[in-house]
Amino acid sequence: MTSLDKNKPCLVETSQGFSVKYNERFLYSKYNPEKNILQIVENISILPGTLILCFSPLLGYGINNLIQKLPNDCILLGCEVDEELFSITKEFCSKLEESSTGKFYLLSPSEVKKLPILLETQSKNYLQKRNIKRIIKIDFSAGTTLHPEFYSNLEITLQSIINQFWKNRITLVNFGRRYSRNLFKNLSSLKNSVPLSSLFKTVSKNILVLGTGESLEKTIEQIKNTCDLYFIIAVDASLPILKKYKIKADIVVCEESQIAIAKAFIGCKKYAEYSVAGLTSCHNTVCTSAKNNSWFIPIYENTNFLKRLQNLELVPFIPPLGSVGLTATYLALNLRKDENIKVFVSGLDFSFSAGKTHANGAPANIALQSYSNRLFPAANYNATYNIGTSKFLDKSAQQKYTNVALNGYANIFNDFFANEINLFDATTSGIKLNIPYLLPQATNNQLTNNTATNEYYSDSQNEKVINFLNNELQKLNELKDILTSKIILSETERNKKIFEIISEREYLFLHFPDGTHPSLKIDFLKRIRTEIDFFEKDINSALKNLR
Hints:
By secondary structure, the protein is of the alpha/beta class.
């Protein structure tokens, strides 16, 4: 391949093979084009379960060598974002792709740009099945220097997606069963609660969303004498702080699935009008935190079970935001009457000072103080020096600390809420948020809030819940009878029926380490059989409460 256009890439023959020249610049050595990349491939160490990003592979030098040393569960992705260079890459790398037996895939520029979305939406297929846990990037040519920012961001983004996927998997393994059991228990509470949808677009006051970061302390001092002029949405752990200042929240948002935090809300019930809680939340925490309850479903996993529940149109679904502070912000934007109502966020620092992880009065701080003494003070320096914690300068150029999880939540916040109208950061500390800064502004005291409602779930809606639970119980009984051979079917019919039932009830296996997909393996079904007893008990208990 040659070209008379100096602005087009062209092959240049050297004494030891071909190089590529583009915009008057050699993208390989003009003396020995293969030498550098072959040395890199020879010296690189690759662990199993690695996704190797082959940036700008061009003539394919080193690809075969890399394939030969690949451990199990590794994939090579040839990534070229430059359209002109891809015309060369396609010519030389397509045959490598065909002969690699599924180890090397060449992506076009448009496919490379869509790679983060593809990996995120198909993570079970691409990450779980292949056990991909890390990324290595290799610059196969100097073509990467033409788009350095793109390639750098691509690597960071893909690694973040992989990290988040496995973090979510670990969360589900640890808490998946608890989420599901809480959900069934809380379904029986719908009859005595207020539909969350009836509260949407009702708030006519400016809204304060209050997290538990250190910045909350300053905000409370600013608004403590005018708090009645705001509609206050508190995250669960900030309610005890508001109680300390005798500030009442209109809504407290709960997502905590474990009972450990429940004791922090003793005596707080009169300080919140509504608890708005995920159905996966700990029932005791929700019931002790406010006068009235409303519910939503956090989409903690994309499952057929949750889709079936969504089809009942009983409870709003909220996207998986990961942090209760983000959920509270999302709710605030949906509760306000229109976009003219301002929403201010405080305490969403996504960072902390040395020795102090939360605002004074938060349950985490109270717990530390209760066990502190002269030798072990209440200051929490462990968080400061944990692996994964890093220093940075915050909005006010003060040294603060963050970690991978908190920084991840900040990134989600910035991505999700960047374009919202009249959403403001009311603080000058913490990680910089991608929204304007503005001190809290009280609404004219002549304005009233219309949120209070006496609307509860109707009898017909309660009947939907009962029918849903009865159907679940019936299917679980049927599954148990099949697994214990009380129902005799042919092997084909048996497998078909088992797969049909468990595919619609992922709560039976989501918490298994291998629980991303239903399986007909004997050990998998034995574990399923044990889970049935747990959920039959929970569903029967829920039905008893509903009758």
